[in-house]
């Protein structure tokens, strides 16, 4: 399998090279040059496999320059040995007769990013060996909350790597911030940025595309790569859990082979739902991909209008991992749906950078509307949905998952489509305990309480156990105290790397 840039400037790249680079030199994202297809018989065979076996099977179709043994080693290192508190890695729970929840938050940082970021460092180390890379890899990350901690945890003390994570100073939850600033590891750094996530992400992209900076790095034996979902090695492991969910429903008799199901996905940077699109393209029987946005509803508006417009007020919400106005992974979908027209995609991305908006052609718009359905959820409705899910089912969801639940309800009301649907749950409710406790227990229960006190209150009232990695978080030593302006990120990187 060979890869190419979404902007047309690079082709015929092996997967190891694409993973090592992260971002193409022309600013584009790497995508497969050909389509991977699975038969229904092949999909059916996944039902008898465990998660690790499914991962090796799917990854092998995209990363064929890795040996079967290498993939087994990477998968085992990522998902075995107690790293995930649930051995199923991505278990599926039944909510009602036609609705299911896929829990992607049983990893070490209690967010869906762990599924990809526990395996990416292993894939990257092997990629460096395969490509005879002598430079030390510097992982540069912009995070809206969960990616940062998951990347820090995945790359800590990984030989031949360093990792620098930037996060918006006031744009993440207290728990998320503490997870990042207390991260141990001899090769890790986390820095707060005075700005929002889009400022942070734009700053990281600018550093990646800075030729002078890249040359300075090489002079010092260093090379950038990314752990954001712009890296194909981060996106491809996410395809696995869509197949795994379908296989689990098959194995439990909830669906029959070939029966179509829908997925509702709370979405910010578009990587999670894009993985579902790739699974559908491969032959997984998916009907609609339901794109759920919060008040920063740039994606749902695009799906409904064909115009992507980030020139709007940025809103800080209780689902901060979705507080994004520039969704990087949408570029991959546009490239795929425009039949790999790199020039067209480059023009759209140029318009986005210069004017803050672009409009796709009618052919691409038609394809988007056939595959996706989008809507958004307000803050009040998110809180209400958390309470309703608990009252009706005794199940506790975090704010991001609640957005997915509410938008799915809107989808059913709008379309009358009762196809069985899996709602993708992206974070443990304990990571956003203040909002969850307020929704379930009321305002008085949270008044005057810290997020750390609310961990215990939420656990007791909802008969849940506090995740091991979050208990006692407030008592950990703060190791990373750096703060910079959005225009100071490049200099901050130079200082950290001492170049």
What are the salient characteristics of this protein?
five-stranded parallel β-sheet, 499 residues, six-stranded mixed β-sheet, 16 strands, globular, alpha/beta, Rossmann fold
Per-chain topology:
Layout: E1 2-5, E2 13-14, H1 15-21, E3 30-32, H2 40-45, H3 51-62, H4 68-79, E4 92-94, E5 99-103, H5 113-117, H6 120-130, E6 136-142, H7 146-155, E7 161-168, H8 174-181, E8 188-194, H9 197-208, H10 211-219, E9 222-226, H11 232-251, E10 261-266, H12 271-281, E11 286-293, H13 298-305, E12 307-309, H14 330-337, H15 342-355, E13 357-359, H16 362-371, E14 372-376, H17 379-393, H18 399-415, E15 421-425, H19 433-441, H20 443-446, H21 451-462, E16 482-485, H22 489-497
Parallel strand pairs: 5-15, 6-7, 6-9, 7-8, 8-16, 10-11, 10-15, 11-14
Antiparallel strand pairs: 1-2, 1-3, 4-5, 12-13
Helix pairs in contact: 1-6, 3-4, 3-11, 11-12, 17-18, 17-19, 19-21
Structural class of the secondary structure composition?
Answer: alpha/beta
User: Which quaternary structure do these chains form?
Assistant: single chain
Number of strands: 16
- What is the spatial order of strands in the main beta sheet? 4-5-15-10-11-14
| CATH fold label | Rossmann fold
**Shape call:** globular
- End-to-end Cα distance: 36 Å
- Helicity, in percent? 40-55%
Q: What's the mean pLDDT score? A: 95
**CATH class category:** Alpha Beta
């Amino acid at each position: 399998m060979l890869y190419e840039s979404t902007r047309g400037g690079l082709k015929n790249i092996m997967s190891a090279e694409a993973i090592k680079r992260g971002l193409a030199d022309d600013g584009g994202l790497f995508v497969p040059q050909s389509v991977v297809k699975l038969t229904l018989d092949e999909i059916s065979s996944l039902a008898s496999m465990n998660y690790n076996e499914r991962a090796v099977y799917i990854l092998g179709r995209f990363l064929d320059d890795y040996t079967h043994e290498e993939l087994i080693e990477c998968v085992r290192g990522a998902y075995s040995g107690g790293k995930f508190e649930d051995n199923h890695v991505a278990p599926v729970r039944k909510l009602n007769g036609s609705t299911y929840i896929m829990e992607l938050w049983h990893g070490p940082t209690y967010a869906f990013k762990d599924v990809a970021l526990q395996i990416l460092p292993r894939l990257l180390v092997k990629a460096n060996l395969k490509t005879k890379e002598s430079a030390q890899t510097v992982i540069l990350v912009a995070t809206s909350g969960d990616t940062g901690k998951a990347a820090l945890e995945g790359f800590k003390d990984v030989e031949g790597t360093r990792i620098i994570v930037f996060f918006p100073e006031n744009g993440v939850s207290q728990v998320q911030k503490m997870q990042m600033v207390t991260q141990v590891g001899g090769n890790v750094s986390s820095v707060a940025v005075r700005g929002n996530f889009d400022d942070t992400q734009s700053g990281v992209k600018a550093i990646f595309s800075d030729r002078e900076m890249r040359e300075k790095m090489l002079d010092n034996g260093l090379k950038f790569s990314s752990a954001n979902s712009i890296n194909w090695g981060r996106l491809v492991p996410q395809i696995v859990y869509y197949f795994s969910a379908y296989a689990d429903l098959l194995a439990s008799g909830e669906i029959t082979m070939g029966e179509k199901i829908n997925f509702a996905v709370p979405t910010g940077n578009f990587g999670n739902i894009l993985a579902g699109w790739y699974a559908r393209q491969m032959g997984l029987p998916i009907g609609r991909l339901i794109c759920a946005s919060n008040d920063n509803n740039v994606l749902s508006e695009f799906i409904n209008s064909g115009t992507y417009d980030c020139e709007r007020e940025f809103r800080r919400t209780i689902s901060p991992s979705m507080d994004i106005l520039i969704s990087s992974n949408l570029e991959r979908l546009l490239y795929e749906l425009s039949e790999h027209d790199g020039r067209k995609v480059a023009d759209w991305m140029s318009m986005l950078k210069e004017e803050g908006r672009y409009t796709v052609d009618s052919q691409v718009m038609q394809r988007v509307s056939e595959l996706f359905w989008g809507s958004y959820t307000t803050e009040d409705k998110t809180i209400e949905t958390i309470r309703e899910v608990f009252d009706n089912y005794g199940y506790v969801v975090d704010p991001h998952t609640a957005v997915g639940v509410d938008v799915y309800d809107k989808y059913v009301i709008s379309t009358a489509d009762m196809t069985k649907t899996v709602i993708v749950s992206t974070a443990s409710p304990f990571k956003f305990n203040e909002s969850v406790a307020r929704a379930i227990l009321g305002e008085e229960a949270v008044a005057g309480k810290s997020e750390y006190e609310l961990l215990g209150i939420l656990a007791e009232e909802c008969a849940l156990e506090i995740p091991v990695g979050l208990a006692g978080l407030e008592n950990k030593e703060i190791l990373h105290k750096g703060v910079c302006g959005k225009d100071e990120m490049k200099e901050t990187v130079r200082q950290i790397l001492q170049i």
